[in-house]
Design a protein that fits this description.
Largest sheet: 2 strands, parallel
Order of helices and strands: HHHEHHEHHHHHHHHHHHEEH
Shape: globular
Number of helices: 17
Length: 395
């Protein structure tokens, strides 16, 4: 066994030992994508019939994910290369959807449905498997969403019993953490960022400081190696934890052979011109939002590189042309995913940065269509649209 793998396994074993024993205290709850004050602010806006919150909540109610007849389909073992993965992701998203509907409507039927889904899975799920590393990605997606539901329920629905909560917590440690803790430096960045997002969600929910800190550590290593700034040097920073991408030729291939490295280029921009960029941006931002609620400003540590990436790609989604120097063969843009709101709210509304292209993208493209979900992009318009705008009165 090589030294790198030995070190990774040692870290994983140490963190799991901590996670299974005495958990560190000091986390704020609820404290994942929203604080209690934020949830109450949104609830107040909905009660007042304000937009975009009210119509977005109605979208959740009408969606299949918010249907009170939803029936969970738990698996003992999820084969990440089969339909199991989609079933688990749908159930996790439905649990979070019903938890949001419960909080914002006070209709206990939604709380009972969310609890039903969480209890069904936590009573049965033991592991994720695949003949490759796909199990890491599926564990990352679902491990990022299941705790969102649990965090809201634990803070607002006392009928979710201590025993049921413990069972849910045990499932997170048993079926998710072993696949997430080692990280994955050699795959495309959206993969490891999704794993990081799940680590931070599970760490907060379980009051597990070691797991949370592992996620923060990996975020600080991966984000600067995923979003490029010219101040990094002539080539991007190398992913942490591997020696296989040290040579310039290897890193250029890893970044899908750009003609020029420039501010705002993402490691996956040229992979498919936007799809995987959004699938990496989302968990990177979600993780920063969780850290923000726990008093750690990951956003601020990499604000320039994240905003540069947002603005460059927003321009492309808006149809603005690119320089022939940067992209001699043009830039065929992929589809627009339902993310962007969380990052925009933080940088524009909380911090006051001008993000004209991102703003135009949200107002003219995203908000002109029904809100949706995709992997770990879940109902962002409801949870973060104008969350910290000047119209807010109860910060």
């Amino acid at each position: 066994m090589n030294k790198t793998l030995t070190n990774i396994l040692a870290i994983a074993i140490a963190v799991l030992a901590i996670a299974s024993s005495t958990h560190a205290a000091g986390f704020i709850h609820p404290g994942l994508l929203n604080s209690r004050a934020e949830l109450d602010f949104i609830k107040g806006k909905i009660k007042a019939g304000a937009e975009p919150w009210t119509s977005t909540l109605n979208t959740l109610k009408k969606s299949s994910l918010g249907n009170l007849n939803w029936t969970p389909r738990p698996k003992a073992i999820v084969d990440a290369r089969s339909n199991d993965a989609g079933i688990e992701l749908d159930d996790a998203t439905a649990a979070y959807t019903h938890a949001l509907l419960w909080y914002f409507t006070d209709d206990e039927r939604y709380a009972r449905k969310s609890v039903e889904i969480l209890n069904a899975w936590s009573a049965k799920l033991t592991d994720h498997v695949s003949n490759d590393r796909q199990k890491e990605l599926v564990a990352g997606w679902c491990g990022s969403i299941f705790p969102l539901a649990g965090e809201i329920l634990r803070a607002s629905y006392p009928k979710w019993s201590r025993g049921e909560i413990k069972q849910f917590s045990t499932m997170l440690n048993r079926a998710f953490l072993p696949h997430l803790l080692p990280g994955n430096p050699t795959y495309n960045g959206n993969w490891e960022l999704t794993m990081i997002n799940a680590l931070m969600c599970i760490g907060v929910f379980n009051d597990d400081r070691a797991t949370f800190n592992r996620g923060v550590f990996l975020w600080r290593k991966r984000v600067p190696a995923y979003f490029y700034l010219t101040s990094d040097g002539p080539t991007p920073k190398r992913p942490y934890g591997t020696d296989s991408l040290k040579a310039d030729g290897e890193i250029n291939k890893y970044w899908f052979k750009p003609s020029v490295f420039f501010d705002g280029l993402c490691q996956e921009t040229l992979r498919d011109y936007g799809q995987h960029l959004q699938e990496g941006l989302s968990p990177a931002i979600n993780s920063a939002e969780i850290a923000f609620h726990q008093g750690i400003d990951l956003y601020g540590e990499n604000a320039k590189r994240i905003m540069a990436t947002m603005e460059f790609h927003a321009d492309r989604f808006l149809g603005k042309p690119v320089s022939k120097t940067l992209f001699p063969n043009g830039f065929p843009m992929s589809g627009l995913f339902p993310t962007w709101e969380i990052a925009y709210n933080h940088f524009r509304n909380r911090r006051g940065f001008a993000l004209p292209s991102t703003s135009a993208l949200i107002t003219t493209k995203l908000r002109s269509r029904p809100t949706a979900t995709h992997n770990n992009m879940v109902w962002e318009r409801l949870t973060h649209a104008e969350l910290d705008s000047k119209a807010r009165t109860n910060k």
